[in-house]
Design a protein that fits this description.
single chain, 109 residues, mainly alpha, 434 Repressor (Amino-terminal Domain), globular, TransReg_Diox_bact_type
Amino acid sequence: MEVPIMNYGKALKIARSARNISQKDLSDAISLDPSYISLIEKGKRIPTIETLEKIVKSLNIPIHLFFLLASGKNQMKKMPSSKKAGVAELLLDLLLSTEKNEHSPKNKN
């Protein structure tokens, strides 16, 4: 059985870019060195689950969405290319809508 390889760097860069947050701003928010964020994005460091939790909380995205963004080619290799592009577009829409929902007034029922 093949072990799935998660690309946390790719996911981090996508999520951070979608939120328009710099590496420096993210690192300040989660009390890490900016170079560590850079190393994660380059695939030279694998963050701990605690660090991932801080990252997704700071970026205001669900951790399951972050893991989906981090999915590698092997997890999607049987999917036709046309569907892969659609999945990527849906993920980005979900990511951006999560931010909008967080800033919307909450129902007070």
